[in-house]
Amino acid sequence: MRIVFTGGAGKAGRHVVPYLVGKGHQVLNLDKVPLLAPGVDNILTDITDAGQVKDVMQSYANLGELDEANGGPKPFDAVVHFAAVPRILIAPDSECYRVNVMGTYNVIDAALKAGIRKVIFASSETTYGVCFHDGEVTPEYLPVDEEHPTVPQDSYAMSKVVNEVTARSFQARTGADIYGLRINNVIEPQEYRSMFPEFITQPEKRRRNIFAYIDARDLGEMVDRCLKTDGLGYEVFNVSNDDHSVAASTKELVDRFYKGVPVKKDMGEFETFYSNDKAKKLLGYKPQHSWRMYLDDPTRA
Predict the structure, then answer these.
(1) Secondary structure of residue 185 in the 3-state scheme
(2) Residue 286: per-residue pLDDT
(3) pLDDT at 301 exceeding the cut of 50
(4) Domains and CATH numbers, the chain
(5) Looking at the predicted structure, is the pLDDT value of residue 88 above 80?
């Protein structure tokens, strides 16, 4: 597919874009800085500027397309929108909210007006109100699925909830396929050895992420599955790996951190509390990575 990808130079994007290129997709990255990766083209773009976004959505993807003599640029097949202020405490709260909300509105609006019928956008685990809560809070039930209430306190998560409402409204008007990804904590391959030994000994450090994670390469697989799956209309999906990001078992974590929280189903010994069942069922999503593949797992001793 011929894809516009926003935010490809970010932590998630710099893994997802090469993954998509490896699957045979042609990717044009829109970002404030280029992604210098083989097979990727870049146009420096401010997503909060509606005129810039509208222009690029109807642009050539690269100089080589001039040789095709189509009488102008041909339409893109899909948009994957990851560009954003990636969390709180990077920009002022009002700026985080403005960039994320207006940027998403501009991207979806321009894509649909350009005739693009598939939009995939990055939402967040933070929408559930746990990650950046002031003080400690537990989910209303476990595992957390897409039906769990989304009532956050912070500007970043608020922006993501608003973006989901925006996307649903655009889909209702146009009938296009628009899928939102509630992405859990993105882990790059090298971070297993640098970060996870601490999580083994101090599992409390993962409480705000509901003890879950998503390998950046499996996030690429998730996006590719969304690109290949048509006809769902508007949907949101949790994106996570199958296991916890700590060595403790499900039962041990419930006993220590989630006493009194209803557990809605029988769960595996190390099954994630951040349910990815919906993505597996509707998209055929199959995560391939676990931190246990890259570190000595004390649970196997």
Answers:
(1) coil
(2) 98
(3) no
(4) 2-188+213-244+273-289 (3.40.50.720)
(5) yes
